[in-house]
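Why do we care about 3D structure at all? Because function follows from shape, and shape follows, mostly, from sequence. That is the central idea of this module. The next example makes it concrete: a single protein chain, its amino acid sequence, and then its structure expressed as tokens.
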Amino acid sequence: MTPDNSEKNRVDEVRTAQVLVVEDESDMARVLEFNLERRGYDCVLAETLAAARNAFATRRPDLVLLDLRLPDGSGLDFLAELQSEPETRAVPVLVASALGEEDTVVQALESGAEDYVVKPFRVGELMARVARVLRRRVEARHAEEPESMAAGEVAIVPETRTVTVAGKVVEFTRTEFDLVAHFVKLPVKVWTRKQLCDLVLEAGGAVQERTIDAHIRTIRRKLGAAGGMLQTVWGVGYKLVAEES
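And the structure:
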């Protein structure tokens, strides 16, 4: 995946996030719903803690926008419930409440809330805070994923030493993987046989250079239709091109 595509995917993840709005004032709930959906979010409304629990269990949201004064209890109780379980603790909670006392704000933040906005608030500012929290969540999620690199249909994950071709995992030996990795990291660069020997075999010489040729033949075979991307530069060595030519 190219950096540009990766960034685009992250932006799309933010824009298509689901937000659970726990708010018992119907007018306020409609305002929030309108503004969230206007920005592309999938909005789910819950007027009570019971409804919030049901909605959360049905489809886990990407963010909870939480009022504290609800007909069947305090939003702080719901926040504590989410924080008590590892699988729900990662879902960020943004509190939007008329309770603006310092003790309440501090309690909510210390209980795990990502942010706290006191009513009445400016809707544009609240939406900016929602976007910021979701953006941080998406960035954190991708930071946990192993870094990958790709050239055409061939992608590698150095951390797990995994190679995929058109999305399908292909098994390579240690030496074969090291060769593929060098090609993918620097596509189009021409690698001499001696350079490849020094990098993956830790020795040079004519015998080892012929060994490189044998590894290249095996790699091409394992790459299947993508094998043509690994091209011979006659009299020099090999290079990987993003597309067959």
